[in-house]
């Protein structure tokens, strides 16, 4: 339905529709808001979230858990277009769908900006905000581009291509600007500002859209006849055929969207000084929209015509080649990760070259796939096919989230995360952990801390496999006591001695390789007689693992020592002293006092001597990590590419080309979605 005061039929004019400027402005601001928050999401979850409550340090989120949350969010964002299509095409029309869900979208940004405030735990604000943003962003996604097409009549339809070029420019301008800016806001002004600015931009986008209400053409919803027209026998058959292709494309999206998760985490351990710029950890993502703008004309006007002279590039063949390019891009980041695992600090340029390959794959898969989908869909199925195409993005991210969920081993930090809700002299269970809580007197403080005793493998308290967690009065975990603290400390001492003896200059000192370390630890065992396992995680990080009381590796009973090297940066010590503390450093110092300042200064290299610190935990490791993680995805997409070859060969195309006089809205949808999966 639509209100009678709004026009439902385009004006017969040769000029631009009056509502176009509002839609273009809305799209630029909306894309800024979405990419702004998404760019910093993984860094925020792993480094900032546990510091969001005043006076407390929460439980740090693991990389795999952050990846899982991130890909669940992306999956939800690309699932909700189905809801948006139903609302706009069946119930309330495009304008009301976009406006109402944009308000929901704004509330999601508000929830993120309020993290650390009263009412909810920071993690609860986070999940609420992500859900509302996914609902709002995903719900309007299939409506916005079609709404552009609604504004045109026959006389000005020749201007549609130009308008969609502006529309696509707005998308890339908004995403590029926010991908560069929001990491800077997060570093220097903190999460409230970094999430708040995208929220303000989304509010502006909503205001611009509302201001254009009297200029827009409001096409009414079709009601239930939509289903009769859409799901014909021919349409359903076309959908089933395309779904075979989409199943393969979903795997591509499962890898592509890791540029915002695992690639960001990898960048932390790379040399980010490149092209005269010190890149922040999540800023390298800005390369993708820039490359898209460069590679589309290169492929369209140079590569495709050149290849066509010797090898006919059908849509299926383009998609197939795109899969192999994606495999090559992940092979590059896997090799870079192997260097990191071996103690090197490779240049961020490794990721730049991987982005060139991956974005080339995106051009050949995403843009080609959208055009192919449109031509293979019957007239009444085109909007549904576009929603199903977006759903393939959701499926791919569900797969990636599932993998990251599956590789996580339960950890005792699950108990630590519940400490605030535990009263002294009580017992409880969390996941597979059984524990009891007692008060812990703290000298010089009126407030008691807490001691949580976790029953070990035998399920009994008071035995040698118990795990004891000590918390201060602010619920900060200060110590984890196990029967293997001493044996792990002795093993770590051997690693530290080898490190300090490896070179004279601190900058050249290196942790032992895994082969060297296993030789050093050959005569060392844990309290149960199990040998230790050593892993070098990066140039400055290592891990020593005891199999624990159950004697099995990679279980929740593993006792783990994590070591971190803090190098005295003599050359830059004065420069570091002149650099002000960023928001996170100030936050750590304000919460942890002198201990926090010592931690921050050590991380900055502002210490007189190089030192090694270590902490102990139980469980919580990932069964697939480092180079193995990236090689897993490389082989996954490579197998997908190989399997797609015979599928593509036997696929029988049937094109449904628009005849003159058919709905311009459908032409608009094809034009709009030609820009990639975020159009």
Walk me through the structure.
Keywords: Membrane, Transmembrane, Transmembrane helix. One of its GO terms (molecular function) is transmembrane transporter activity. This is Di-/tripeptide transporter. It comes from Fuerstiella marisgermanici. It is a multi-pass membrane protein. The protein is an alpha+beta fold. It has three domains: 20-408 and 626-673, Growth Hormone, Chain: A (Up-down Bundle), CATH 1.20.1250.20; 413-479, no CATH class; 485-568 and 605-618, Glycoprotein, Type 4 Pilin (2-Layer Sandwich), CATH 3.30.700. The protein is built from 22 helices and eleven strands. It has a five-stranded antiparallel β-sheet with strand order 3-4-5-6-7. Strand 1 (273-274) and strand 2 form a beta hairpin. Helix 7 (160-189) packs antiparallel against helix 8 (191-211) and helix 7 (160-189) runs antiparallel to helix 12 (287-308). The longest helix has 30 residues, at 160-189. Residues 657-676 have low confidence and may be disordered.
User: What's the count of strands?
Assistant: 11
User: For the report, how would you describe the main beta sheet?
Assistant: 5 strands, antiparallel
Which percent band covers the strand fraction?
5-15%
Mean pLDDT: 87
How many domains is the backbone divided into? 3
Large-scale geometry: globular
Q: What's the name of the CATH homologous superfamily of the largest domain?
A: MFS general substrate transporter like domains
CATH topology value of the largest domain: Growth Hormone, Chain: A
In helices, the fraction of residues equals: 55-70%
Structural class: alpha+beta
Major sheet: arrangement of strands: 3-4-5-6-7
C-alpha end-to-end distance:
26 Å
Number of helices: 22
